[in-house]
Design goal:
208 residues; mainly alpha; two-stranded antiparallel sheet; two-stranded parallel ribbon; 9 helices; 42% helix; 6% strand
Length: 208
């Protein structure tokens, strides 16, 4: 790595540093971080030991920081994503409080399903689409399927995720652009005046 000194008054804006840090963390997340499966990282395995001890015996993955510093990450790479499923494993400090149990990914899905008719739930469980940057974390689909099958042992659980990294990252934007390009999309527009007059209920009424 080559370090460059900037004359006073010409230093990059803090937003540039924040952008580069975000890019580094994204690369780390998608190339090193993994979700532990089967079971929870804080739980016990069939051999009687803890999964965390077992994770320490797994092969570590290297990562090179922008300054050239290299490090191997072992069990730490599993802990980073475990809080998506087990909030007790989340790292926290004074500035970043731990998430609540209601913020765990399976719990969020369970809450969403509880808002719809019971007859529809099996159909939704069989058509779960996983998108977004964090869906690229290794093993997240298998772990999510495992957690949901434990919550819903009866219905069939199916997870769908695009094989394309670009589609996985930007599916929400791609879907939005497709929706906006439809000739009938203007019929779903809601003006600010309409929203203020009718409230959130107009969204469900207009977008059936």
């Amino acid at each position: 790595a080559t370090y460059r000194t900037f004359p006073p008054g010409t230093e990059p804006h803090p937003s540039f540093r924040a952008l580069q840090e975000e890019r580094t963390l994204t690369e780390f997340k998608e190339s090193v971080v993994a979700v532990w499966t089967p079971g929870r990282l804080g739980g016990h395995n069939q051999q009687g030991g803890t999964n965390l001890d077992l994770a320490r015996t797994q092969s570590a993955r290297p990562f090179e920081m922008p300054d050239g510093y290299n490090q191997l990450f072992g069990a730490e790479r599993y802990r980073a994503a475990e809080s998506l499923f087990d909030v007790k494993m989340a790292a926290s400090d004074a500035a970043h409080p731990p998430p609540s149990p209601a913020q765990a990914l399976p719990t969020l899905i369970q809450h969403s399903l509880s808002q719809v008719d019971v007859d529809i739930r099996p159909h939704l469980l069989a058509n779960i689409v996983v998108v977004g940057g964090s869906s690229l974390v290794y093993g997240i689909n298998e772990r999510l399927k495992q957690e949901l099958e434990a919550l819903y042992p009866g219905p069939r659980v199916r997870i769908f995720a695009s094989a394309s990294v670009v589609e996985r990252k930007f599916s929400s934007w791609i879907g939005g652009s497709i929706l906006a390009s439809l000739g009938t999309f203007h019929q779903m527009w809601i003006s600010k005046k309409e929203y203020e007059e009718h409230g959130p209920g107009i969204v469900e009424k207009r977008c059936k």
